[in-house]
Amino acid sequence: MRIATLSERASIERFLRRAAPAQIYGLADLDDAFWPDTRWYGTRGADDELDAVCLVLEKLALPIVYAVAPPGDRAALGLVRALGERLPQRFFANLPQGHEVVLGATHEIALAREYAKLWLPDPAGLESFEVAGIERLGLAEADELERFYAERAFGPGEHLGFYARYMLELAPWFGLRERGELVCVAGVHVFSERYGVAAIGNVATAPARRGRGLARAVCARLARELAARVPLVGLNVATANEAALRCYRALGFREALRYEEAVLTRRAGVL
After folding, report:
1. What's the number of domains the chain is made of?
2. pLDDT tens sequence across 189-235
3. Strand ranges (DSSP E) for the chain?
4. Comparing C-alpha atoms, which of 56, 60, 67 is closest to residue 15?
5. Of 64, 158, 171, 192, which is the most exposed, with the fewest CB atoms less than 10 Å away?
6. Domain that includes residue 225, residue range
7. Same domain, 80 and 182
8. Sheet containing 197-205, strands listed edge to edge, beginning at the edge strand earlier in sequence
9. CATH of the domain at 225
């Protein structure tokens, strides 16, 4: 297998656009806000067009290896396996289902969970989910949001998400308060007007306030704002999170692809 180091955004974009609703994160990472922190690899078919792409994003403390593709995709899985020592020693992975077959011998795999990539075909009707009191959040609330995610947003054993302060600069966030304290927040992981994509992320409701439709209302407000600025809005959700799936489906989100998230660590002595 011949691996190419990719530096031309146009060719990467052509590949990702083939399945754009499932590739929102990859498309956004082509933007200048993310591009300097990325490394891209690919393989090409007989027509010299890319048939697999793998992104290594080093913007967060734990690097992300992203090669989202349909379950068992041979080109994507072959590329990730062949990259070998070019991958970080430890990384957070977004990979096709079946990655454990090709990487299990060389990496310890932890926290593996099935996820679905959802996208919003039509934002019409989101207004019907609005409630009073939703407010716009941004950098001025950065410290408060850090405390919310660290202290109140999650229950025991729940996944803590991927909040980072720079995400507040990408696009507006929204939240709801009760007695002056944030109880529900929805923000973004990535946003790019240049590539026309946005991904909702960091959605959380304080455990004691759940079951009242707060996340649905705040996500609806955020989705309306994003859809007014870019044509493609999506998000990732664990398929085991039935409450979240019901919320997003009620808002009109539809499934584009299933994949797996995990933390992989190269086994000792493996290059």
Report:
1. 2
2. 999 999 999 999 999 999 999 999 999 999 999 999 999 999 999 99
3. 4-6, 38-44, 50-57, 64-66, 90-95, 107-119, 135-137, 173-178, 181-192, 197-205, 232-238, 254-266
4. 67
5. 158
6. 126-252
7. no
8. 4-6, 38-44, 50-57, 64-66, 90-95, 254-266, 107-119, 232-238, 197-205, 181-192, 173-178, 135-137
9. 3.40.630.30
